[in-house]
């Protein structure tokens, strides 16, 4: 068995993006009904996130977004998944393969959307109050890449996430 095959065997396939969306929706419902203040959630200040769930093929984390916080253009290392907005509004800039395919989408609280392994995007909280999101990545969070937006609307990889 080659090294690549052994790695493939050890790395289970993740859930589908639709299954991730169901997981994200369950977490949104659970957190909405929680008496615990989301602002006081035990976030890691260095990452602004806390892991909610890890199981084979899936990792879910909660992320807090202070006003004007930006997660620059990145991919998810080949993972698919879903993102749900618990509080606030997230603005998503989706990079396309052609200039016409680029788009900006506002994601208000209650929104859950899926993403494919090919997604490259930037997320922002353009609001004046904290935003909170739930991210379900499948398989478990893979190392992705950060990109710089250069002339001509081209994304150039600059480092691993
Ligand atoms: Fe992302």
What small molecules are bound in this structure?
fe (ii) ion
Main sheet: which strands, in order across? 1-2-9-4-7
The CATH superfamily name is Jelly Rolls
**What does the largest sheet look like?**
5 strands, antiparallel
CATH topology: Jelly Rolls
Average pLDDT level: 85
Instruction: Calculate the terminal CA-CA distance, rounded to whole Å.
Output: 30 Å
Radius of gyration: 16 Å
Backbone shape: globular
Class inferred from helices and paired strands: mainly beta
For the record, the CATH architecture stands as: Sandwich
| Percentage of residues in DSSP E strands | 35-45%
Tally of DSSP helical segments:
2
Please bin the fraction of helical residues.
10-25%
**Contiguous uncertain segments of 5+ residues:** 3-11, 42-46
Helix and strand run: HHEEEEEEEEEEE
Task: Tell me the number of structural domains.
Answer: 1
Give an overview of the whole structure.
By secondary structure, the protein is mainly β. It has a single domain, classed as Jelly Rolls, CATH 2.60.120. It has 2 helices and 11 strands, in the order ααβββββββββββ. The strands form 3 sheets. It has a 5-stranded antiparallel β-sheet, with helices on one face. A hairpin with a 3-residue loop joins β10 and β11. The longest helix is centred in the first third of the chain and has 16 residues. The radius of gyration is 16 Å and the shape is globular. The two termini are 30 Å apart. The structure holds fe (ii) ion. The site of fe (ii) ion has 4 residues, from β8. Fe (ii) ion binds next to β8.
